[in-house]
Write the structure tokens for this entry.
Amino acid sequence: MDRHEFKKKVVDYAYSIGIDEIGFTHAEPFLEFKEKLIDYHKRGYASGFEKGTAAERTEPELSLDSAESIISIAVGYPNKMPDAPKSRKGERRGLFARASWGVDYHTLLNQRLSKLEAYIRELDPRVETRSMVDTGVLSDREVARRSGLGYIGKNGFVINPNLGTYSYLGEMITSFPFPPDEELIDSCGDCNLCVDRCPTGALMGNGQLDSQKCISFQTQTKGFLPDEYRSKIGNRLYGCDTCQQVCPRNKGINTDHHADIELEPEVLKPELTGLLEISNKDFKGTYGHLAGVWRGKKPIQRNAIIALAHYKERDSIDVLKRVAENDQRPVIKGTAYWAIGRILQSEALEYINERYIIEADEEVKREMLKGVQEAV
């Protein structure tokens, strides 16, 4: 079997197992990307969640000695939620970003890549492979770009003609020299909507992102949310979709044909106060399958409290007081006090003054003062 026939069999099988797009590229180093990556880190734009050195992220042979080619895959995910519950006074709701809808995409993609690896070895047992999804060292987006799956838009996402930006990406390094695909030559042209609409000005306009300013990154941090972002996150519990929602290349696209991407409206758009006193067991049982909870319960609860302050939800005061008085985690306790001040404004002064004498943690006390000072 020649290289082209082998490739066709792999492509046909990929489509049969729920892979929407597949592309191939050589395993030579990503030299141009390496220069950008080094500059990116020098400018302090990195989130800190990235893995690997610049060499590991751009030289496939460091991940697989026998690397000859890389297979890039994309699986589209839905961006519309049928029967989504409404957020109303007394029942305010938060929202998980679309990339976290359904089963954790790491699981979803790894299952498909494992099947693809097994099939390749069926065809030729000598082929060595190594698959990666997000947590690997190679850049999923850069591999996808060079494999012809799309071009990098100004919002930093791979834009595919059929999937838009709403796709999960993964790759497999192989020791077989598959014929490479041509890169997709396209651009955003004069469109600057994502840059203009970014809530915090995190997009550089050249496909790069200042992760430290990105709302998606900030929702995943574990400490106190910096003051300048509290008014920006709205009701977001995890992630931010603004730069995808405004992208014209996503118009009319909603990939909803995958049976293993099941939408759960009550889980993906949960009632906020219900998150604040939930046990670890119940949290894991209800939300543990979502990619958006990889950092644990604390960031989600902190964001839920900030969302209640955003809504100025007076009906949440009782639960916020219980959290402020009883939760032992300074970030949650302090943010709850801050939210009480923001919601009740001058009415909170007496309560905050009483509790200020009792609380010992200095960070918590700063949040207590900050909440009422901002409110009055």
In short: The chain has a mean pLDDT of 95.
